[in-house]
Design brief:
heterodimer; A: 147 residues; mainly beta; six-stranded mixed beta sheet; five-stranded mixed beta sheet; 7% helix; 46% strand; B: 588 residues; 49% helix; globular
């Protein structure tokens, strides 16, 4: 276990704070408007140009079923999944934080907005709850094409 | 002996080069008997033997060694250079090529060599008295004046080799028992000396380089297009921007040219295919090759082998007549097939021309009527009749031979060429021969496109798929299913509905006055679009696996303004909707 294994990137989708393992994110991108792509799932926003490569974009807000208004301060988190790079739209990237194991509640019986299989725990800090998700898995397992 | 995978890969690359050379030398030998050529084959075999043993491919080395014995007999004139023996050498080359290719994926791969070895034993029939000649053979080997010999001779003395053959005694005696380590050192030194003019680069690295340069040129074009806005008439800036523009273009062209390869390797395979098929069919065919140095993109080269092979096999099987028939018709006994390549401004033109019996336009026409492809009264120009043989499901051969038939028809050939943005034309005079003219773009990665607007966004359409864009005088309802144009009724679809009905809400009523007419396999179809935005050249970018394969798209591209663009797959759209139309007609 190295120091980086405990580091999480904290971001917001709607009003809720989420964290995902820092090392699973290839880069954080400035928001750019995706070019819509036909015959894809509704939460698939389209494609963007990341230095010459065409990268698919998933709207995490729509994916998690949130209807919160867009804050106007959007950012994108890019992951290299096995099926190619995917960028996820989030409302705001907050910070990088380190959580010790004791700070993380692994077994949570709450009904979170994130499907249980991608939920890795809940971290508590300064009375705030941060939902820890495995963003890499969440973006990897997606079949983006509309049936 | 443990096999090092990296060394093996390196060996395989070099062996494939050697085997290509082996093939070309043997083909040359079929044309003219020259002892220098057979010595060349000997040197190649010898190097393959040494090389394969040094990476631990013992069975491979032994096989080559066995063949090399036969070649030695040809070198020293113990056996004559008959066509049969050269054909056998070509077959050996094929086995070795198969072996080498197999080794790339499986280091333990070994094909069945028994058949070839058995033939080698009879073809190079070595009588019992040969053992006593071994000294002569050995010295003959040494006399061949090549530097490589000294390096490879040492390989003969490596321990695993001792037991392989009794005839090597003389050779072993002449060398001074260098260790196998010493041998590999010597041969790699030799390689350095001969290969200093080229380097092998993995295709992947090259593609990455080209991609970066592609990006650079996109950004350069953004700089160029905004030069007026950003810095008003700053001369130094303008000059640099202009120079940058020029240099970027040059850099990009140079980078793309790295992927270019001469077409000779393909032609060589075709020549061999023709000769082999001709001998199976007992036909006498001469092959003439022109312009083997013309270069094409590597990916194009790989994809044209099968279509071209099909065309030349057809030419031998159905085109060139049997020798007696040719004589009776007052033609030279020997048939001729000419394969040529030339470069012109639009790309590369390949011509395959035979002097066989040509295409019987009447028979093709009758057959097409029988098959219901055209009506009794349909009037067609000769060229249009020949185009019929490239339609799916058309074959005039009375029965499918396993020679050129093999389940692939001319329609597949045409499709393969269309996929490469190329085209094919047939010209034929009955009794005199057939000419296939194929036009290919030099590179498939850059294509001409038009940008159209659909549902408020830009969509990319390859120009090759587009027939025309109509501006209607009176707008049409988008629910319309057909359109009257130039005395034809064309099916028409609303592109917005096709592409976006699943992902966003689209109107299915309304009127439009722009129709884009596209065609695929002679099937025309119109698509309502909002408007045409412009025309440009784009570099095709593959889509990653998670977004690839969505219906109606064939890939992506970065447009001149840096935005990503999606290229629509016109053939797929047309096939789908023409099928639906047919199904609807059937049902009604």
């Amino acid at each position: 276990m190295t120091e980086n294994d405990h580091k999480y990137l904290i971001f917001y989708v709607g009003q809720e704070a989420y964290g995902c393992p820092l090392l699973s994110i290839r880069e954080v991108l400035e928001y750019q408007k995706p070019m819509p792509m036909p015959n894809m799932k509704s939460y698939f926003s389209g494609v963007i140009n990341v230095r010459g490569a065409i990268v698919g974009v998933v709207d995490l807000r729509a994916k998690l079923g949130l209807n919160a208004p867009i804050s106007g301060q959007l950012a994108m988190l890019m992951c290299d999944t096995e099926k190619g790079a995917v960028a996820a739209i989030v409302d705001r990237v907050d910070s990088v934080q380190q959580f010790e194991e004791v700070e993380v509640e692994k077994k949570v019986a709450v009904k979170a907005s994130v499907p249980a299989s991608y939920l890795t725990g809940i971290a508590k800090r300064d009375k705030n709850m941060i939902v820890l998700v495995n963003l890499f898995e969440l973006l990897s397992e997606d079949e983006l094409k509309a049936a | 002996m443990e096999i090092d995978v990296e060394l093996l890969a390196c060996y395989c690359d070099e062996a494939m080069d050697s085997l290509n050379k082996w093939e070309s030398v043997c083909l040359e030998l079929l044309k003219r008997e020259d002892v220098e050529l057979i010595k060349e084959v000997f040197r190649i075999a010898h190097n393959l033997k040494g090389g394969s043993r040094s990476v631990g491919l013992l069975a491979y080395g032994d096989f080559v060694h066995h063949i090399e014995d036969g070649i030695t007999l040809l070198c020293v004139g113990k056996l004559s250079l008959s066509a049969e023996r050269i054909t056998l050498l070509l077959d050996v080359q094929r086995v070795l090529a198969e072996w080498t290719i197999g080794l790339r994926t499986d280091s333990r791969f070994a094909p069945d060599t028994s058949e070839v070895l058995r033939r080698a034993n009879t073809t190079f029939s070595i009588d019992a008295s040969l053992a006593s000649h071994s000294a002569v053979i050995g010295s003959a080997e040494v006399q061949i004046p090549v530097v490589e010999m000294s390096a490879t001779l040492q390989a003969e003395s490596s321990p695993e080799h001792q037991s392989t053959s009794h005839k090597d005694n003389a050779v072993v005696a002449t060398s001074t028992g260098g260790s196998s380590r010493g041998n590999s050192g010597a041969s790699s030194a030799k390689k350095n000396a001969t290969n200093n003019e080229t380097i092998r680069i993995s295709a992947q690295k090259l593609d990455q380089l080209i991609q970066v340069i592609g990006e650079l040129s996109i950004h350069q074009s953004i700089v160029w297009h905004t030069r007026g806005e950003s810095l008003n008439a700053n001369k130094v800036f303008m000059k640099s921007a202009q120079m940058g523009q020029k240099l970027t273009k040059e850099l990009y062209d140079k980078a793309l040219s790295l992927r270019m390869q001469p077409i000779q390797s393909v032609f060589q395979r075709l020549e061999r295919n023709i000769l082999e098929l001709a001998s199976t069919l007992e036909k006498d065919v001469n092959v003439e090759i022109l312009g083997g140095d013309v270069e094409l993109d590597k990916s194009v080269i790989e994809k044209i082998v099968d279509p071209l092979t099909h065309i030349v096999r057809n030419a031998v099987d159905h085109g060139i007549e049997a020798t007696e028939t040719r004589e009776n018709n007052g033609k030279p006994r020997r048939g001729n097939i000419q394969i040529s390549a030339s470069q012109d401004v639009y790309g590369v033109i390949l011509v395959i021309k035979d002097d066989g019996k040509g295409l019987a336009a009447d028979r093709i026409r009758r057959k097409a009527i029988e098959k219901g492809m055209i009506g009794e009264a349909t009037q067609l120009k000769q060229r249009e009749i020949f185009d019929l043989i490239m339609q799916p499901g058309f074959s005039t051969a009375e029965k499918i031979t396993d020679l050129s038939g093999r389940g692939v028809g001319m329609d597949v050939v045409k499709q393969a060429l269309t996929d490469l943005q190329g085209s094919i034309q047939i010209q034929s005079d009955e009794g005199l021969g057939t000419t296939f003219t194929i036009t290919l773009p030099t590179s498939v990665s850059i294509i001409d496109v038009i940008l159209i607007q659909v549902a408020g966004q830009k969509i990319v359409v390859p120009v090759s798929a587009l027939d025309e864009v109509l501006e209607l005088d009176t707008p049409m309802e988008i629910s319309a299913k057909m359109l009257h144009h130039n005395d034809h009724v064309i099916g028409v679809q609303d592109l917005e509905n096709i592409l976006f009905s699943k992902s966003k809400s689209v109107k299915n009523t309304g009127r439009r006055n722009t129709v884009m007419i596209c065609s695929h396999n002679k099937m025309q179809m119109g698509f309502f679009i909002e408007r045409v935005v412009g025309q440009q050249q784009v570099v095709i970018r593959p889509l990653s696996e998670n977004i690839n394969g969505a219906f109606g798209l064939m890939g992506g591209a970065i447009l001149g303004d840096g935005e990503p663009g999606l290229i629509i797959d016109v053939p797929a759209l047309i096939s789908k909707f023409s099928k639906e139309t047919q199904a609807a007609e059937m049902a009604s």
